[in-house]
Design a protein that fits this description.
The protein is globular. It is of the alpha/beta class. It has helices at 16-27, 62-69, 83-88, 90-93; strands at 7-11, 31-36, 51-54, 73-76. The chain has one domain (7-93): 3-Layer(aba) Sandwich (Rossmann fold). A 4-stranded parallel β-sheet has the order 3-2-1-4, covered by helices on one side. Helix 1 (16-27) links the parallel strand 1 (7-11) and strand 2 (31-36).
Amino acid sequence: MVHNNRRVLVTGGAGFIASHVSEAYLARGDEVWIVDDLSSGKRTNVPDGATFIEMDVRDPKIRGLFEEVRFDLVNHHAAQIDVRSSVLDPINDAS
């Protein structure tokens, strides 16, 4: 089953796993936008053909992106990856 031309947002798309997820969407013919603040991901992980926006998903400006693009699908991978930090300061994860 092919779902061409969907508008897909992949948050955290510069990370290892989400970059491969993005490649799969592109291979299916979907348009892919990646939002990542590069706090742990790498710009070099962003696949060719994806639109990259360097932004924290908590930034209120992301609302404008949703209004402009009208995504068909959001695949959320943006997260704090440091377990030690999460255990030491769990309140920070909720911010």
